[in-house]
Amino acid sequence: MFRRGLVIIAVAVALPLPMAFAEELPPEILAIKGDVAWGEYLSGECVTCHSAQGAEGGIPRIAGRDTEDIVVAMHAYKQNRRVHPIMQMLAGRLSAEEIAALAAYFNTLD
Amino acid sequence: MALNRRSFLGASAAATGALSAPYVLAEGSGKPRVLVIGGGAGGATAARYIAKDSDGAIDVTLVEPSRTYFSCFFSNLYLGGLKTIDDIGHTYGTLAANHGINVVHDWAVGVDGAAKTVTLAGGAVLPYDKLILAPGIDFVEGSVPGWDVSAQNKMPHAYKAGSQSELLKAQIAAMPEGGTYAMVAPPNPYRCPPGPYERVSMVAHVLKASNPTAKILIADPKPKFSKMALFEEGWTNHYPGMIDWIGEDFGGGVVSVDPDRMVLTIDGEETKVDACNVIPAMKAGRIAELAGVSEGNWAPVNAADMSSKADPDIYVLGDASQQGDMPKSGFSANSQAKVCANAVRGALTGSRVFPAKFANTCWSLIAENDGVKVGATYEPTEEKIARVDGFISQTGETIDIRKATFEESESWYDAITADMFS
Fold this sequence. Notes:
Chain A is mainly α. Helices cover 59% and strands 0% of the residues of chain A. Chain A has helices at residues 2-14, 21-24, 27-30, 36-42, 44-47, 67-78, 85-92, 96-108. In chain A, helix 4 packs across helix 8 (96-108), helix 6 (67-78) crosses helix 7 (85-92) and helix 6 (67-78) runs antiparallel to helix 8. Chain B is 30% helix and 25% strand. By secondary structure, chain B is of the alpha/beta class.
């Protein structure tokens, strides 16, 4: 019992994002249809650090990620609900349309 | 017979003409031509994005004298024994094979803005519709009295990575026990603001293991430097008593060197040194001046697309440009290159042009697994590239945070070099 409690706490701390955050996002934000060409241009800023392969223990891969996962993650950074100084800074200046565009573009990659 | 012979000679002369000066390449292909001078973080990225995204609609030629590019970023980690020289070496074959870029290994020695041609040292004259200059830096003659490039083997700058980095590393290894490593740090503005101080950290890292009684002396013309609090904290923690920084207030800017005697003079006081890294004042790579786009030491550009303020068909990227608030770094050059590539494609093919966004992050390594970073976002204004928002690592961070920061920098290195060369 005690052991299980510890494990749950550990998982909660390790999770970068409260699960409820996705539900807090207004549905109209999740419904924005991203402009793939705009997203491709904006992705230039991402791929300086996020390689096509990603890196174990380093900066993760974004290519091929689910569109909604990217949108939720970027809004979490934008609202400082998820902590990383570079990501908070970069997401902080992206509009909801730009985030949707990026997510739509990365989803088109293998 | 005579006629035949004359015809043959005529054809032969024409063929020879194609291989000697002056001649014009790529004439008549009908496609718009982009010529990129310099294959570093700015030039290689710009060439790659224009070729990749235009899908063959634009002829892209990249002129770069070196067959192997050694990145200045991470060259300090090579000095620190944490990377090999091969780890920081990259070649251009993939840009030709994957994207059809015409890679020419030669020096650009002249630009005719009216005729829109560039002359190479080998004699070729290349025409362009848009010219992108990304020549990096050259050194300001006479900025460190006693030093010029003829002294760079005795007192290496190692600020263009490659053989100079290898030389400096060998000189550090050859220092006598308890010897002195000196650095003459550059005045602002210069390539990679935290670079000299990361370098000192990496030299200290090597000496701590191999020559722990050695000393490091920095003569600095500046009153403060990038990430100063972070470096000073790290030096106290990792290398106590080893590093002596002499800033502007204590005469750090009043220096001269005597490479033959291996003497560094700071504010009139001579010190005998065993290795001496002279990093002179910097200016835009020479071709910017030859192209007539420099004003003083740097080439002013428009923030929206990196076009030169002197010539709308010439763009200047990276260290050579005078753009406003962005530091001179590989990351900045890569960021500027993508904005420029989008604008150049738009101008030549009518493709969509999106608003410019710029960003930079500079990671530095203070000791093994002790990484720090500073970064900012930028946007164009009428006047310059202006800083919007930023962050910097904090003093007193945990070793876990510092290790994660270092691992992040390794991922970034792989990603940015792929973004330039893959």
